[in-house]
Amino acid sequence: MAHLDVDLVAADRKIWSGEASMVSAPAADGEIGILPGHSPLLSVLRAGEIRVTPVSGAHVSGTVAGGFLSVDANRVTIVADSVTMSTDAASR
């Protein structure tokens, strides 16, 4: 089964990294959902909630203050100005 390799980082530290089946984020033009096989994308993020559905383990979610999201070849990189986590999302 295909998966996404996700890196969620704030300006000062890595927040979460791992394999996921889905990512949703507050893109500048509206909410965006990323699944495996998504076409390449670069988007500005507005303030809102990031949600990651890991392949294994509990859902990860947090609030970002802005930043950007990049998708390429099943790799999702989210770079946020700041992140406040809603769940225990220690780096793996």
From TrEMBL:
F-type ATPases have 2 components, CF(1) - the catalytic core - and CF(0) - the membrane proton channel. CF(1) has five subunits: alpha(3), beta(3), gamma(1), delta(1), epsilon(1). CF(0) has three main subunits: a, b and c. It comes from Pengzhenrongella sicca. It is a peripheral membrane protein. It is found in: Cell membrane. Belongs to the ATPase epsilon chain family. GO terms for molecular function: ATP binding; proton-transporting ATP synthase activity, rotational mechanism. Residues 4-82 form the ATP synthase F1 complex delta/epsilon subunit N-terminal domain. It comes from the Bacteria. This is ATP synthase epsilon chain. InterPro entries: ATP_synth_F1_dsu/esu, ATP_synth_F1_dsu/esu_N, ATPsynth_dsu/esu_N. Keywords: ATP synthesis, Cell membrane, CF(1), Hydrogen ion transport, Ion transport, Membrane, Transport. Produces ATP from ADP in the presence of a proton gradient across the membrane. GO terms for cellular component: plasma membrane; proton-transporting ATP synthase complex.
